[in-house]
Design a protein that fits this description.
heterodimer; A: about 450 residues; alpha/beta; Rossmann fold; formyl-coa transferase, domain 3; three-stranded antiparallel sheet; 20 helices; 14 strands; about 15% strand; B: about 500 residues; six-stranded parallel sheet; 13 strands; about 40% helix
Chain lengths: ~450, ~500
Amino acid sequence: MAGEIRPKSKEELEEMKIPYEEYCRKAFDPGNEWSKPDALKGIRWLSCTMYIFTPHSACNLAELGAEVIKIEIPRMGDAMRHTSPFNEAYLYPLHDTRPMTGTGYGFLNANQNEFFLSLDYHIPEMREVFYNLVRQSDGLTELYRPGTFDRWKMSYRTLQQINPRFIYVWGGGFGYGPKVFGGSYDILAQAHAGFASITGMHENMGGHATKSSNWVMDWNSGSLITFGVLGAIHWRRKTGLGTMIEFSQVQTSTMFTEYAVPLYGRFGIVRQRWGNWDTQLCVHGIILCGKSDFPDAQNPQDKFDARYVMVSAFQDRDFQELCNITGQKQLYDKHKAHKNRVEALAQIEIYNALEKWAADKTRSQVVKAMTDAGILAYPVMNDREVYENPHYKERGTIRWLDDPLYGDVLLQSGYSTGHMSKTPRKVNWIWRPVGADNVKLYRDMLGYPISKIEEWYAKAWI
Amino acid sequence: MPAKRDVEIKSRKDTLDLITPEIRPWPVSPPPSPEEVKKFYGKRKAEEFGQWLEDNLKFEYSFGKPEALQGFKVLDIGLWRLGHKFASALLSQAGAEMICIEPPGGDPMRQLTPFGREEYMLADKETGEKCGLGFIDHMRNKYSVTLNVETPEGQEVFKKLAVHADAVIDSTLPGYMDKLGIGYRQLKEINPRLVYCWVGLKGQWGPMKDRVSNFGQWELDPIAQAVDSYIHNTGFPQDQLPRGKGGDPTRAGCWAADYVAGTQTGINILAALYWRDEVSNEGQFIEVTSAEALMDILDFDIGWYGFNASIKGRTGGWDPNLNQYEWNPCKDGYMMIGGQSDRLWYRIGMCIERDYPQFGRLIHEDPFLKEVGARNALHALIKTYSVTTRWLRDINRVEAETKLMDYEIAAGPVLYIDETCEFPHFKYRPWVYTSETDYGTVLYATSNNAYQQRAPHRLKWLGRRLGKDNYEIYQRWVGTGPTKVDELKGKGVI
C-alpha cells in the first residue's frame, strides 16, 4: 500500500520518536552547514552587475554553491561600494591603489562568496578575454542600458554563437518598449508601479506616500531573476539550450499590491494607503503606546520609539477578548461581525480606542497584557532588539562571520533565506577588494601569463 | 453635450454597474503602436537591436514556446497566508503542475475583501460562489482540490498525491502535518525524492516560533515585518511629521514579507530539485519564514548594528545612503528623483537650475557636497532635499518629469494604481494584462519572467472555485473515480 510508513532501521525508528521541534532543529542544524554539500555545485555564473538588484540575483546563486565571478570597473568597482549609511561604515581597502578608500556597507549582503575580477569592457583587446569567460560559464547577469552590450558584441546575439548553453539575463528598469532606455532604481520601482501608492498613512490622517526604508524592490527582483535562472537551468537539462531573460524590475512593484490591480480593472477603484492597519482584517494593525520601554536609554531609537505594538485579533473570539481586557465591551457589541469591524470607520474607532487604552502603558505592558490574555501581539522591534532576539540567534539566521579579510562581521543574510536540510546555503566571505581574484582567474582559469596580467593592470584595463 | 443617462445614484451600489470593464475597458487608451516604439529605439541608434529584442522576447509569443518546469508536480497546502500562495504561483507560472489543497470549507482567505465589501468579490459564473480578489489573483495556473487531512482517509489520499509529487509546499501550523503522519519525516519514507518546504511566519522551532492565539487565530503578516525591524525602520520620523499623525513606524501596504518568503521558497525548491536531479536523487526538507526572508533583504541594517551599534531610524521618503535618491512633495503629488554619481548629480542640478538658479549656488558650489560619499551625511540630505523641494513645490508631477527626462535622469512620480495600469510602457509590454476567467475578465500583473527567448513563464488561468478540479485530479493522480469522490465528499473527506 502506497501510504504505509515503516521505519527501515533503528535510526529511523528513533527519528520518528523525537519531538517535532527537536527534529527540525536537528535536520537544519545551524552552524554545521559545511558538513553538507552545495546545491548548485558546478554552476559558474558571471555577474556583470552593480547596485543591489542584479548583484542579488547572482548572490543567491553563490550562496547556494555556484561559483560566481563578479566583474567590476577597474580601480573604481561597483558604485555600491561607495555607498554607506550616512557615510559612516566602511571596510578597507577598496583596491590596492586606493588604500584610504573603503567599501561601504551599502555593498553588504549583495555579493557574498563571489570572486572579484576587474575588466574594462570598453577595451577591444579585452573582448576575447571576456569571450573566454563566456565559453567556460553557464550564464551571466548584466544591467547596462539596452544595446550597450550589443554594441560591444557582448549581447546574447553574439554569445549564443559562442556558447549555445549560455543563459543570459538582462536586468533593468523597463525593457523593450517606449521607455526602453529609461534608467531605474529601487526607489523608482517603489514610486512608479504601485507599491508606494499603498504604503504610508492615509492622507486624511496626515500621512504621505512612504518609501520602504529598504531597497525591497531591488532585492526581491534580484531573487525573482534567480528563480527565472533556476527555471532556465532546469529547462536546459532537458534541451541543452540556453535562453535570454529580459527582466524589468519596476514590474515587481505592481506585483506587491495584492488585490489592487484586479480591483482597479474590474471596478475602477484605486487602492489607497491605509497606514498601519489592514484593509482586509481588523484588528490587525499597529498601535502607539503612551510610554517607551526604555525611557532612560541613550539611543533615541530606544528612548523614543520603543512604543509600538502589532496587535492581531481579527477573529471573533480574539476580538471579544481584546475588548474585554481593554475594557471596551461596547466595541465588541457594536462590531461583533468581522464584516462590520473591518469597515473603514469602524477601524478608526477601534484603533483609536485601543490607543487610548494604551496611552498610560509602556509597550511591554501592552504586549504582556495581550499575550497573557492569549491574544497575538508583538513589539515593533528595532535593529538592536532583532539582533539580541534569541530566536534568530538559535536559528543561526543572525550570526557573526569570521571573514577572512575583514574579521568579525555581523550577518543577517544568506542563512535567513531559508533552511535546507541537505544543501544549506553558506556564507564564506562578505566581499573582497576590487579585482582581488584577478590573478586567480586570469591565470589559473584562463591561462594568461602573469606578465600579461601585469601589463593589463598597468594600463588599467583590469 | 453628453447624453443624460437614465440612472439614479443613491448609493455606492448603484454605481457598480457603471464601471464594469464593458463600459470602462482596460486600457482606457490604446498602448503605443510598434511603429511609435521604433522611434524610441532610434534615439540611440538601436532600431535593429530593439527589433531583435521584440522578435525574441515578446510577451505575446510566450504561448508558442515550451514551459521551463514542464513535468514537475507540486502540492500546495496551507491557509491564510500569501507566502506559499506566491511561491506556488511562481512555480506554476514557470510550468509546474500545481495542486492547491484546501480543507472542504475552503481557505478563509477566499472571504477576505477590502473593508469587508462583498460587492468587490467576484462570483463564479457557474455556481455563483463568491471569492475575494486577492485570493483570485494568487490562484495562477493552479488546480483546486479539497481534502480534509484530519481524517484517516484524507491522510491516505494525501500520501497517494505525495507519491507523485516532486515538491510539497506546506504552510500549515508547525508540526501539524507531522502530527497527522503526513509531514516530511513520514513522506520521505514513501517518496525519498520529495522536496518538502514549510513556509511560515517565524519558524517551526525556536523561542519565537509560530503559534496561534488561545482562540485558534493564526499569525499573519505584517507580524513578520514587525519582528525583523522592517516596520521600525520605515516611515517618517517624528521630526518630519507629528507622532500619531504620520510620523510613526510604518508597515508596507501589502504583506511584503510573505511575498519575499514566497520568492525564496521558489528559489530553494528549484535549487533542491536541481541537486536531486543532477547529483543525489534525494529530496530534502526546507523551511522558509517571512520574517527571516525579509530580514535577508533589509539592506545592511542589522549588520550596521554589528559594525558600530547604530540603530537605524526612519527617514520618510528619503534614502539614508544615497543623495539624490528620494521623493518629495510637489504640487500634485510626489516626485521621485535619483542619481548619486557625479555625472547624474550635476545633471539633476543643471535641470533644476534652469528654473531656479539658486540651486547651483547653494548645492553645486557647496564644497562639502562635492564628494560623492560626503553627500550622504544627514545634514547634506536635509540641505539638498530642502532646496530641491523649493523647486518642486511650484510644479506638478508631469512638468517635473518632463524636465528631468530631458536630462536623462531616472526620475518619476509616485503613481497610483490606475496611473500605473495606464502607463504607456506598461501597457505596451504589457505588464498588466487581462485574463478571461471563471469570474469574468480580470486584470492582473504579469510575471517579470515572461519576457524570455525560450521558456517564458506565463499565466494560463486565474482564479479557481473551491474544489473545481476534484474529479479530474483524484482520477488522474490517485485513481479515485467520481463515484468514490462523491462518497468521500459525503463523508466530509473531500
